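User: Structure tokens for this complex, please. No commentary.
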Amino acid sequence: MASYEFLSEKYQKIETLDKIPTFIVPKEDILNLSKELKEKGFDFLMDLCGVDFPEREDRFEVVYLFFSTKNYERVRLKVRTKDKVPSIVPVFKGADWFEREVYDMFGVQFEGHPDLRRILTGDYFKGHPLRKDYPAGKRWPCREEDVYRPQIKEEQSELEEMLINIGPSHPSTHGTFRLLTKLDGEKIKWMDAEIGYLHRCFEKMSETHIYQQVIPYTDRLNYCSAFLNNVGYCKAVEEMLGIDIPERAKLIRVILGELSRIMDHMVCLAANIVDIGALTNYWYLFQPREEIYTILEACCGARLTVSYCRIGGLSKDVPENFKEMVEYVLKITPPLLADVDKLVSKNPIFLKRTMGVGKISQEEAIAYGWTGPCLRASGVPYDVRKVYPYYFYDEFEWDIPVGTNGDTYDRYQVRMEEMRQSLKIVEQALKRLKPGPVVVDDPRIVLPPRAEVYNTMEGLIYNFEKVMFGLKVPKGEYYGFTEGANGELGFYIVSDGGTKPYRVRVRPPCFAIYQAFPKMMVGQMVADAVAVLGSLNIIAGELDR
Amino acid sequence: MESSFLTTKLDYIARWAQGNSLWPFPFGTACCAIEFMSIVSSHYDLSRIGAEVVRFSPRQADLLIVAGTITDKMAPVLKKIYEQMPEPKWVISMGVCASSGGFYRAYHVMQGIDEIIPVDVYVPGCPPTPEGLFYAILKLREKVMKGGK
Amino acid sequence: MIITPRPKTFFPLSIIIYITGHIVTIIHFFKNLIYRKQPVSKIPYPEIRRQYSNNFRGRHWLRRREDGSVACVACFMCSTNCPAQCIHIEAAEDLNLYQEKYPKVFEIDLLRCVYCGYCVDACPCNVIYMTRDDELATFTRADSIMTLKELVEFPERVKENPLGWKPYEGNLPQWEGIQRFKY
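Assistant:
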């Protein structure tokens, strides 16, 4: 008997497309239920988001997705409300920023939340943008006096305390986030993070575009590994439609996806090591990255923002010399990784800067909702590719690297090992690659072949219909998830049966990781903050969407 | 007449010097910042045209390269950084998001940084290739040497 | 599951690590100096350009008919499929020669375009293509709007082999009797 069964005795269970057991619960019960679920083993809050249905009386739906790291079960709870919901921050620490985001985007008040204020936008912003009646283009100017300034109470101290801003434009943040720190000498006494400097309204934009047109937007989420976002979104929509893409398309997705993962880890490691002071590795790591860019550019014509996937496969077949190009990357990458290993892994300076710095225990990491390499560095072997295998990942031979201490050094080692494992996967996938179609042969889902469009009436009509109206996705909701470079990248898509998504919610892995960062750094040195921030690999595009 | 000859010569030398030593301040926010990395690294090597010293302090730079989407929340920051730069200063708007908002016709994205600061060169592309940006910098250098503001 | 290695923090012989590091960099230096099968990756830009592939997504180009008129029939498919809504078309009727609609105004705002190639995929008449031109910087925003006159010409810089992203071919390899366009 599954551990969520006690819910079905009391509450109404509803059918969803993704087969995750879903219950509608009254809002008074949510705090107790989350406590009970936590005791039953659902120790991980995967996602918390809102959906707006303006025609209902209780117009907002707050969706909680719980996950168990013991037996990998998922359960979803839904709370319908007009304005207020009890906060579950006392039970799940990781709910903190997620609830603030729902408050910011929908205006749902979370009672009992310790610090409920806007997160992605600021106080200058009037209204709640993700409500259906908010026009997509309505802007509010932010002036100098609207910049967030925290109210900090003065404390008596022997040393002079200093409040400094790190960011939003700071070379060590590799993006745009602002850290407010109160320093006592070199020690951080208090820290707060302010995000939203790159909030590009992905979720609102995807509501105003048809399903295919969302793909270019997903590129710009985690721009270091754009292809993985493409795969995540397309896979979710394909599973909603219930189609199976050809084997060749799957294998190409695996190959390019793993290469993108290598690229992302390379950017992360290179930037992290440069911040600590070792420049040489930067050049060694960027050399294969440039080669991977060349492959991506040869396949789809853009180096960074690829837009290569389509719903139903890929936009085009790979070029003829694809195999040689990938083999070249497979040849040059391992020696360069070995060189970096020789330079850094045992270097006493590097060890001093990273060992025991930014340590997070297994329980803490789970409580904050960490996924991906950062969670694995703490010792939890959770990887979507192993636990919920997709695209032949269960048929390839590879291992999950796991750290022991969860500090910066372990995160470095886990990323290094993951790159080697990814190379292994690419090698095996390349062997299996056989000629064949790369898109499904269904004119309702993909654009018909050009030859048909130019020469036959049916082809022209399908092309016209597909472009003008888009594809229809069955009504329902779906949470599709893949392993992104930073962790579980989830797309929660609510469809009303039309051609535009009713709601697209991204579960950004960075968001959960970054909310723990200010709390981790209290009591540490300010110079270590830079080293830890680099090792967490926070990508602003994904953090703020 | 002599004095004006001298000032024009001095002016010419100053412009020549300015054009050959543009010090960029990369205001990188998003995807374009990743492409900016490749133009300063060894493949393209921006230092060949004198733009060698990438400064992270606006007070030491005279070329502001805005690489990436500027949101409304970021606008006061960008304006402040622009004001902190010493005269003469130039601005390159890299990528479509910075230039016009791109395909983010949305509630939190600035529809082009020329809403708050003047822009000298716009670089289309999402993100522009390193060649595209290099071409823009060469174009700006020409303009600076000819005496454009 | 692999447990990642974790060296001990204290090294009495840490000098060896430093020496290994120096050897690595010195080997790289000599490899680049002597053994240059692949040229040391350096692109002195205005003289030498990187060769992008034949799929490159750059500035747009419109195909012309043999008599020189633009082959577009102003069906608005490209502007509908464009996520950035950067294509502006005004249609007019051509009563003389082809008895078809034609675009009186066809403008692409290069500062809105995100170069995704969706317009190329949507075109039912095989007209819009993307070229390999990527040097598009302008001094003003108005300059970046491409008009019909500019769009039908190939950019000067990429005259030989100008085309980049081409329409998506689909699953069928080749059709019997399909009319292929030659450039």
